[in-house]
Amino acid sequence: MAKCPECDSDLELEGYDLDVGETINCPECSVELKVTNNDPVTVTLPAE
Fold first, then answer.
1. What is the number of domains present in the chain?
2. In what order do the strands lie in the sheet with 32-38?
3. Which terminus of the chain is less hemmed in, N or C, by CB atoms within 10 Å?
4. Domain that holds residue 15
5. Which CATH number is 29's domain given?
6. Coil, strand or helix: which one is 7?
């Protein structure tokens, strides 16, 4: 299970068709996250 690097909340992303490089928003803190791997799903804060 992926965790938000900003607020450390669990992200329920299994079963979603996510592509590496895609951006999503954390449902808890609304920060933008970048998908860095899709098996298992991992996310990071995008470089600014």
1. 1
2. 23-25, 32-38, 41-44
3. C
4. 2-44
5. 2.20.28.160
6. coil
- 31 versus 1: the higher-pLDDT residue is 31
- Rounded Cα–Cα distance for residues 1 and 45 (Å): 16
d(CA 43, CA 3): 8
Q: What is the pTM of this model?
A: 0.86
Q: What is the mean pLDDT of residues 18-42?
A: 94
Distances (CA, A) of 44 to 5, 13, 41: 6, 14, 11
17, pLDDT greater than 80:
yes
Identify which of 15, 47, 14, 16 has the alpha carbon closest to the alpha carbon of residue 33.
Answer: 47
CA neighbor of 45 nearest in space, from 18, 25, 28: 25
